[in-house]
Amino acid sequence: MFTGITLLASASSIKRTRLQQQQQKRTKVPPRFGTSVASFTTSISSPLSDSILLSSKENREDCPICKRYSQGPCGDVFKQWMACTDAHPGKDETTGEDLHLSKCLDLAKKLGSCLNKHQEFYEALDLYRPEEDEEVESMEELQAAWQKVIEEIEETRIPKPFASLSPPLQQPTVEVNPKQQNGFVALPLERSNSCNLIMVYARCDTTKEILAAGSNEDLWEWKDGLGILRLSFNSTTKSITTYALYEDADNDDVLLEHRLILKA
User: Fold this and answer.
1) Bigger pLDDT: 95 or 11?
2) Where are the beta strands (DSSP E) in the chain?
3) pTM of this prediction?
4) Is the pLDDT of residue 178 over 70?
5) Shortest CA distance to 39 belongs to which of 149, 189, 139, 156?
6) How far apart (Å, rounded) are the C-alpha atoms in residues 137 and 229?
């Protein structure tokens, strides 16, 4: 299960806590890119995206994820892991794999275990509500982090139509406003047909840009048990495909897709 990409908190344990619901009440709009990208590991090692964590040392004071995990019960091991990645830049000449994936594996596993154990502590932190002048930069960092996770997922998985399962899962609800170039994607939050929703993302089929991405816990609770993410696109977008990664009753994962053609 989850070859290449491992979720620190298994799909069966992901739940919408009262704390998350309280945090959502303070959030005026649904997110485009969820902050739970830190809960995914790449190649069963680094629990946080290289695109964020391996930023230059000079910029780390402005890195929301660095601020978040440098404190609290996992702060020390996070700093040790980050120092290890700094000490092992580049790639292995034989395998082409990033050196820190092997050199810092023990610390990465230790950090992943700690973050899983203290999940509620880090959910309580309010570091992902940037000031307006930092919002665009933070959004770009999260988008880059999700892009890396998605690339890993798609290396080993071929998307299937939602109708391919028996019984079929409920397709995403995707609504857009072409004039304002925005919209949202919605999926059921609760277990459906013995399948757990792990994450969802949307891509512009024209530019291949990731328009939104988040895990089950990132989705903004809406009505009728649906969770939503915001979308934002440009005038060149002709169609949008939504992808959802599920864990089925056999603990296998399946990637499903649904395409929306935009009206002219």
Assistant:
1) 95
2) 5-7, 40-42, 160-161, 173-177, 182-188, 196-204, 210-215, 220-221, 226-232, 239-247, 253-261
3) 0.61
4) yes
5) 149
6) 19
